[in-house]
């Protein structure tokens, strides 16, 4: 929302970043649930006087935004998805304050997972997993909605069924062609749901939590293939595309998906001295690296026919 101000184009927003909250729910059977969220809020609002005239009368204090996170977490008497909490907060800011036209709420959920002790799910014990679930809700005063979910830090590795051949060779190329290598990546996925209004989102409890787990499973299963045979990957690019396509084919309410898949290199180890070889690489000993890494990213969207 750009405004013309004193002959300039002016755009502004304000909010609170990284508000951390944990919420516990306990049912009558003594079964506990916990979530830990890191919430970032950004409001687009009519508050030019604060910038231009030392007049803060239209400002929602960022401290109030932070407090709202705790107040709304308290009000949620039932466990809810991170997406539903983002929507609830964004809806509050756009409906409660006349000045606020758009609220952007992004939340990262920490992967607390229930532990099993002696094969039994623990009533109140959790351990931290690895990848994180993200959600972003952008809500307009009109009720228009953009909802995006994601995965960050999903580390995947397979020890075979990967190769890279037929690429451009020139005077700077040294990489050998191969049909046998390790493939490792840390997937960042971001998918947009097709719901475009607060009034059209599914009301089923934990709908988006279930969807998140289902999308993650499709992504992981497509990367690895069948448990015995696997699936051959001719490039990170090809595997990324298969993962994106499988997601859109499987989930009708996902409108688009963006995937970032760094190619994390495991370098074959060959060592020799003047007397001859010490270690001869036989697809067994690797030097793990984290940088430099290849960076491969793409997005796939449905082409919506405008009737
Ligand atoms: O799957 C790959 N894609 C590339 O674009 C690339 N480039 C490279 O050096 N190795 C690889 N591997």
TrEMBL record:
It is found in: Peroxisome. The active site is at 16 (charge relay system), 62 (charge relay system), 265 (charge relay system). This is Uricase. Pathway: Purine metabolism; urate degradation; (S)-allantoin from urate: step 1/3. It is an enzyme of class 1 (oxidoreductase). It comes from Lotus japonicus. The keyword Membrane does not apply. SUPFAM superfamilies: Tetrahydrobiopterin biosynthesis enzymes-like. Urate binds at residues 62-63, 164, 181, 236-237, 263. 5-hydroxyisourate binds at residues 62-63, 164, 181, 236-237, 263. Its main location: other. The keyword Iron does not apply. CDD domains: Uricase (cd00445). It catalyses: urate + O2 + H2O = 5-hydroxyisourate + H2O2.
């Amino acid at each position: 929302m750009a405004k013309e101000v004193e002959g300039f184009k002016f755009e502004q927003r304000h909010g609170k970043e990284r508000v951390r909250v944990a919420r516990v729910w306990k049912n009558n059977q003594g079964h506990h649930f916990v979530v830990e969220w890191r919430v970032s809020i950004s409001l687009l609002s009519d508050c030019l006087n604060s910038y231009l005239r030392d007049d803060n009368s239209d400002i929602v204090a960022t401290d109030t935004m932070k407090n709202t996170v705790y107040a709304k977490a308290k009000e949620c008497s039932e466990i809810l998805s991170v997406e539903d909490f983002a929507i609830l907060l964004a809806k509050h800011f756009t409906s409660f304050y006349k000045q606020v036209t758009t609220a952007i709420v992004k939340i990262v959920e920490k992967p607390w997972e229930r532990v099993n002790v002696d094969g039994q799910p623990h009533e109140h014990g959790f351990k931290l997993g690895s990848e994180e679930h993200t959600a972003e809700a952008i809500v307009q005063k009109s009720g228009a909605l953009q909802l995006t979910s994601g995965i960050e830090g999903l580390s995947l590795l397979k020890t075979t069924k990967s190769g890279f051949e037929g690429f451009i060779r020139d005077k700077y190329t040294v990489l050998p062609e191969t049909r046998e290598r390790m493939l490792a990546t840390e997937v960042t996925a971001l998918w947009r749901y097709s719901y475009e209004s607060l009034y059209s989102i599914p009301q089923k409890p934990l709908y988006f939590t279930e969807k998140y787990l289902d999308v993650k499973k499709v992504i992981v299963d497509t990367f690895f293939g069948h448990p015995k045979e696997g699936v051959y990957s001719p490039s990170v690019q090809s595997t990324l595309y298969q993962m994106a396509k499988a997601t859109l084919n499987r989930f009708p309410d996902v409108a688009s998906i963006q995937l970032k898949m760094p190619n994390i290199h495991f370098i074959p180890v060959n060592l020799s001295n003047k007397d001859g070889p010490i270690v001869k690489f036989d697809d067994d000993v690797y030097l793990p690296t984290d940088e430099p890494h290849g960076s491969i990213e793409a997005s796939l969207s449905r082409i919506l026919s405008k009737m």
